[in-house]
Design brief:
Number of strands: 0
Oligomer: single chain
Number of helices: 7
Distance between the termini: 29 Å
Structural class: mainly alpha
Helix content: 55-70%
Order of helices and strands: HHHHHHH
Radius of gyration: 15 Å
């Protein structure tokens, strides 16, 4: 592991290194430009960020089943991306690394939607997974 000064630091706890997803500027820039998230998800279906935006908007509009479906899709797209980038099913997924945020937002939205429909086990699993990924994500996502 390296920090900003370029020095290598060994993980003294022996855990896996953080997984850092590559930047995906297309969907990020389209959403920032005000494009409809439905259009962005259609153009970039592998983007967890687009699905997270759809899930968060659906939750805000009390469309829980829509939110659950959007969040579940983005969550699975994010798992695929994490695995392609070396994640082995556990270990940090830092919130501070902006490209990770779409996945983490989907994970949080999935947990909230699951809780809203009474799927307590799934809601707890999502909350635990989010906390295991990065406590900063828990703080940022409430």
């Amino acid at each position: 592991m390296t920090d900003g000064d370029g020095l290598s630091h060994k993980d003294l706890l022996g855990g896996p290194p953080p997984t850092l997803l590559p930047d995906d500027p297309g969907p990020r820039e389209a959403l920032a430009a005000g494009d409809d998230p439905l259009d962005v998800a259609a153009r970039y279906p592998t983007s967890s960020l687009a699905w997270a935006e759809l899930a968060d908007r659906a939750l805000a509009d009390d469309r829980v089943i829509d939110a659950y479906a959007y969040a579940r899709t983005g969550y699975h797209r994010g798992l695929d991306a994490l695995r392609r980038n070396g994640w082995k099913g556990h270990g940090p997924v830092p919130w501070a690394h902006t490209p990770n945020r779409g996945f983490l937002r989907c994970l949080s939205a999935l947990g909230r939607a699951a809780a809203a429909i009474g799927e307590a086990d799934e809601a707890q699993r999502c909350a635990s997974f989010l906390a295991d990924s990065d406590l900063e994500a828990v703080k940022a996502l409430g």
